[in-house]
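Progress report, Aim 2. The chain analyzed during this reporting quarter is listed below.
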Amino acid sequence: MRDYFQKQKIDKHYIFIGLLCVFALNLSCKKNSNMTADEVGEKYSIVEKQDIKRIEPLNWWVGFKNPKLQLLVQHPNISESTPEMSHQGVSIEKVHKADSPNYLFIDLIISEGTKAGKFNIIFKEENKDDLVQTYELKSREKTSEEYIGFDSSDAIYLITPDRFANGNPENDIVETLNEKTIDRNDDYARHGGDIQGITNHLDYIEDLGFTAVWPSPLLTNDMPKGSYHGYAMTDFYEIDPRFGTLEEYKTLSTIMSEKGMKLIMDQVANHSGIEHWWMKDLPFKDWINHQENYENNIDSWDGSKSIITNHRRTTNQDLYAAEIDKKSLSEGWFVSSMPDLNQRNPFMAQYTIQNSIWWIETANLGGIRQDTYPYPDKNFMSRWAGEIMTEYPNFSIVGEEWTNNPLLIAYWQQGNPNKDGYKSNLKSPMDFAMQEHIVNGLNEEESWGAGLIDIYRGLANDFTYVKPKDIMIFPDNHDMSRIFTQLDGDIANTKMALSYISVVPRIPQIYYGTEILMNDFDKPGDHGLIRTDFPGGWEGDAINTFTGEGLNDEQKDMQSFVKKLLNYRKSSKAIHEGKTIHFAPENGIYMLFRIYKDEILVHIINKNQDKVQLDLKRFEEIGLKGKAVKNIITDHQFFWGDNMTLEEKGSVMLTTKLN
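Predicted structure tokens for the chain:
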């Protein structure tokens, strides 16, 4: 009996404790029911885990106009798993299996008002431990409208990063990558230039008058040779460690933003490098073009096995083009080491679009340059550009279409009334046609149908374009002989080319080293030599462009010329927005005027070797007579009268802005 009563006391004791626990839990639940999702997240933080081999995009953001996100998940046999997650405002819309068992594609919906934060995606498979991957939705640092792209007020400095400046020699060789050597004597080897080298010399670039920088690709290019140029990317979400880190890239962008400068990213939607990580396990049977051919020959792959593009880019517009020619252009590989990506595969298409958006947000970009623009599926390129410009209405994209035909350039520009109804959504094509006109016009002897008239006729083609001032112009780039070489070493002609592209209604781009007359005379057109090292970018260089040490008088003069030209351009509304009037060349002289309110800019190209008297009465419609003008380069001032003496061959730029 005693034991019975003792047991009753113990039971009552436990019952009392149990009731207290229920009461406490009830109070806790009531308290938590009044907490926000963020407060709950803070109180009960997740345990972060990274069980999955790869998930891309690496993160995303809340607050986009498009609420959809597609995750690429790569992990051994992940297709056998079922993903689950819990984050307020985020839901799984659909899960797609690929042809390879090692991929899943997860469609998420991120509702309006979803809070930023981390959450775990749990991959469940029967009779196996759960795999957990922590994923993050970040807050955006600024609104879509605040991403301002480059325009006609900008001047862009194009850089091949490996050849510009070595800011951190410690990252020159990365043992985990295929190409492990540095050899500055080999034009096609890596030389060691990097992101830090660009950052270290932003003051120099800014001082020259440039407002934007376009480095050629900086993403990982793990190819066994020739990786320096960056165009055979092997990871679309990773900065090549030989160039630096993601943080260094973001720092470059931040410092540029503080200076009022814009960072333009060079992207490639058309192809990857053959050493890309997915080439060892392609998600779908149609992830790349001519995939079956590649997989059948993978063990003995070389240039003879690949199916190369025909490069007939006019098939994009040609009313009579054969289907086989169209397919050869868009589906053939650019070269045998660059697999052609199949944007008709909807997962590849979404991957590419999201990758571009990820970099815009991550690096606070001021623009994208898209390589080989006419080669991918053109309907996809319309969608790609359209989705970016819908999200970022003030952004800028320039696309590379290498053609001397203005009709083809016009076809790719946003708003062009194309007969086939094609809408490109591309703000800025490239003006290879005008570049060719400038070189020919300066090199040719003057005659009725040759010489400066070639440049005049080239600019007259602007009636073809919806918005000429959004087109990018250049004297040269990383794929063609340097302008000093193209103009046969003629300094006066080089100055005229640079001044002309800087004052016409265009967005000018100038390649690094043009300001010191870098050239490729030894092997004209050789890419390795064109992309030669910038003097002073390496410790111990005998010549230092950044300080001027070792430069000859001609190089210093050209450097000064570019600096005065571009720094005037920075604040010239006449150049940015003004009306353009040019007069047909006569007697080896070509006159062009830009006019905006009270500012008039006069640009004179004079090919006469001897002193010449210029009759100004022909230009009366401009309204300059009696007005004071100043030479932009020499600062000499005078009043515009009936005539002017041109002392020597060259470029003359005058302005009514005296201060």
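The first strand starts at residue 54 and ends at 56. The longest helix spans residues 2-33. These observations will guide the mutagenesis work planned for the next reporting period.
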